[in-house]
Amino acid sequence: MTGADPGQIFREEAAELLVDLETALLHLEQRPTDREPLDTAFRALHTIKGSGSMFGFEAAASFTHHLESAFDRMRKGELAATTAMIGIALAAKDHIRTLIDDPANADAEAGDAILARLAEQSGSAAMSASLRQEHDDAEGRATWRVRFRLAPDALERGTNPLLLLDELRELGDAGIVALTDDVPPLEELEPTHCHIAWQVILTTAHPRSTIEDVFIFVIDETELTIEPVSASVPEPESAVVASEPPAPPSREPSAVTGHVPPKEPAVPKADAAAEKGKAHPATNSIRVPAERLDDLMDQVGELVIAHARLKQLISDSVDLQIKSVTEEIERLSNGLRDITMGIRMVPVESLFGRFRRLVRDLSQELGKDVVLTMSGEETELDKTMIERLNDPLVHIIRNSLDHGLEPAADRVAAGKPPQGRIHLSARHAGTRVLMTIRDDGRGLDRDRIRAKAEEQDLIPPGAKLSDAELFQLIFHPGFSTARTLTSVSGRGIGMDVVKRTIDGLRGTIEVSSTPGGGTEITLGLPLTLAIIDGLLVRVGQGRYVIPLFAVEECVELPPDVERRHANRNFLNIRGALVPFLRLRDSFGVRHPPDLYQKVVIISSGDKRVGLVVDQVLGDHQTVIKSMSKLHADVANFSGATILGDGSVALILDIAQIVAAGQVQEQRREAS
Amino acid sequence: MTDTETRSFEALTLGLGGEIFAIDANSVHEILDIVPQTEVPGAPPLVSHLINVRGKVVPLADLRIRFGMECTPPTIDTRIVVVEIELDEEPTVVGLLADKVHEVTSISGASIEGTPDIGMRWNPELIKGIGKRGDDFIVIPDIVRIFTTH
């Protein structure tokens, strides 16, 4: 992409690095001696610093520098990764984010405070650095033979071998020889590629890891060997080698081996090739703006629709050739649709991972010891869905931590382990993904919910409610049973937002709870926002789509129901009374009804409602189109879709329609 | 009337309920023949139908409703003018029903007069001004206000 704002690219890259950094820090907190998260954190910091100053984010770069230094010392074992240290690093990470995203509003004092704490911690946590220094000295200077060959396109990617060599020189006495045995004849020479490898005889007091660090950013693409050279190699020799001019380009290896210490000939070609294979892993990814994926999805959606029209047009045709081409197009467009949807799928790990920090910070703020566990992180969901699920899940987890989990003393008194648990899980169930948030806290207090609901006139006093009905009340706007307000929750906003967001995603929420045993909230979500499996029905002359996940069954409307109970719209479905709505009344249809009316039974949560339609036309997979702002306040519909003949059909909003059916049921109970 | 509203502009003129209306030609995406329409139960009368415009679901507006004109059934000349307007800072594509589409023409700012407060058949709030073209009067509707006021 030419013309893209490099600053923006840096911001995006930095955002990802900061996420990596945070994950690494949280891992490190769990396992302070682990090398891998430490390296990840260090690499992330180093890149942010480097790219930051390259793109003019000086403040962020210089701030990051301090943190990077601290992490460098941790890697060398001079500093311990204490909880306090991780805490500072997390705060610093947040500050870096502000410095990058919104430098104008960054609080310089807060940044200085973090740095002051960092300095203090580095001082106290320094594991007798001086002692360590002595130890190194005792080990004395060692001589290493370092050979490296950069990837052919390393120069294009901005790697400067001279800087690597300079860095090596800084470490100690270095004798550098260029290995030119791979330089091709002039006519084959690719001028933008790096054909030269280097051998450096380095005598240094630094350990091997320091030498490796020089290559930390190119290590994946570089063939690198570092081996100790026995003390017998006289230093003057390497000095001589260094002063000698680089060998002229030559195909003959012998010409080169003459200049390097004779111990080791040039790396055998076979090995080099094998290492090259390892160095280029198959994963090759590109970054694509999300809008482009949306555009692609739109186009594919239109292709699917266009194909459906084509299929309809030729259904009467006897031309076998056209038919076979149409089938070919069907195969291709279905494949394209599946691939496009696959591109948008992201493992929920990327969503769950964010909550580690949330739980950590909140548990410290609230003084509760809480562990967050996860399962099914590899389950995939549409990227847009993942983004929109963030806020609802934050609310739910906050509630669990704040209201659900008891303080440690209460837990012990109740015979539970003092450490609270929150478990996040995701799994596939048919075409839906079930996401569960479970805690082992005190559970929902039925009496208090009931008292609160009666106080707010949400339910009549003494109303008989099932647990599920009672628990749904917590999603009512302004409903909060928290006795004391905390900064975390208890303002009575939150759960209704959760409900609204999940409804908007065509999802469902179920709550179950055991007193003293904990609460479990299960979100049922469609795999993607873009495509819906629906049941196509006809009401009057209009066609409507009912989301298939909500459909339980279709039955015929018994004619006697119509005659006997003109005002009582209830069906007896295997012994259970199910209220039904005549969609023709709801939609104001004037067209005369069909003789045999059908009822589609739909459910939302544990509520069931029958919808009376004129005809059930069949199932229909289609692309969801949102309605414009002009139809924002129209009830009963959640979107629209385009049918095979090119006309528009509306998609019913299950949650709203079920609610309307419930109003009817309440009227019956009241009467 | 401010200057910005009475400057010259390229306009698409169309017939609606016996009057000539002019809409900014730059906002016009395309002009379509009549396509199948889907009624939206419970929607405001102005935008009671949806149409499919190249795979996008677009509301179809009958401006005659806002101007109190008689809604005659479509004829062979009836067209749908697809325009893009800014609603709450969000570009929104809307189809406008027209009895007949005339031409793209330049309307000079000097010929545009403010809306007379009296002697008008319709709500002056919905009109930016009246232009003159030869002996004909051309109504310049305020499309955004038509959709945002009820």
UniProtKB/TrEMBL annotation, chain A:
GO terms for molecular function: ATP binding; phosphorelay sensor kinase activity. It comes from the Bacteria. The keyword Phosphoprotein applies. Residues 281-529 form the Histidine kinase domain. InterPro entries: Bact_Chemotaxis_CheA (IPR051315), CheA-like_dim (IPR004105), CheA-like_homodim_sf (IPR037006), CheW-like_dom_sf (IPR036061), CheW-lke_dom (IPR002545), HATPase_C_sf (IPR036890), HATPase_dom (IPR003594), His_kinase_dom (IPR005467). SMART domains: CheW (SM00260), H-kinase_dim (SM01231), HATPase_c (SM00387), HPT (SM00073). This is Chemotaxis protein CheA. It comes from Azospirillum lipoferum. The lineage of its organism: Bacteria, Pseudomonadati, Pseudomonadota, Alphaproteobacteria, Rhodospirillales.
From TrEMBL, chain B:
It comes from the Bacteria. Residues 8-150 form the CheW-like domain. InterPro entries: CheW (IPR039315), CheW-like_dom_sf (IPR036061), CheW-lke_dom (IPR002545). One of its GO terms (biological process) is signal transduction. It comes from Azospirillum lipoferum. GO terms for cellular component: cytosol. PANTHER family: CHEMOTAXIS PROTEIN CHEW (PTHR22617:SF23), CHEMOTAXIS SENSOR HISTIDINE KINASE-RELATED (PTHR22617). PROSITE patterns: CHEW. Pfam families: CheW. This is Chemotaxis protein CheW. Coiled coil: none annotated.
